[in-house]
Amino acid sequence: MQEAEARRLCTLLSPLRLAEYQLACGGDDVAALRLHCWNTEISEAFYGPLQYLEVAMRSAMTRELTAYFGREDWWSDPRPQLTYGGRQRIIEAEQQLQRIGLTPTPHMVSEELPFGFYVSLLGPGNGYDQRLWRTALYRAFPAYRGRRRLLHRQVDHLRIFRNKIAHHGPIHHRHLVADHEAILQCLGYIDAGLATMVRQHNRVPEVLGRRP
To answer: What is the Cα–Cα distance from 90 to 71, expressed in whole angstroms?
Structure first.
């Protein structure tokens, strides 16, 4: 690609967005554009492993909370004492379903809730360590042997990483090998077979090997 064409495309894609890539490439527009394309490709490759982690966490945590509180809409039980933010996420999920003409069921609400909601249940919350973790949620991560707060820190780090990808942000500067291993490790806490499947069939190592 000619430098003039690369400069034109960088301008088209947003000078502000491309500025970080140009800085990383010493002002070389061609190299910056190549790095931007690779950033898109590696973000796409991470989508699969992050999706499996989000779905597996939601499924495992919902299963254990439903079993412990004895109802599918476990959040309606007074015992969890969700934070204000947590209650708002429930209301927003119900309202979103209603806006598209659906009558919310507990399963629909669980599926509509964002990844951040489930990550927050592993945080301190309103005494979540006693109310949720020690009573139910530790069973969602049978291979995990550490403290709740350390698990929360790890998955919250991955939540921020996921959101960065979802908003088309730059991730090329991160320690992506470590990010990949962290996803697989968290999957392993939930189910070793799932972690093995994702390790064998995701494209992250291949794309990392082609970094420009």
So the answer is: 15
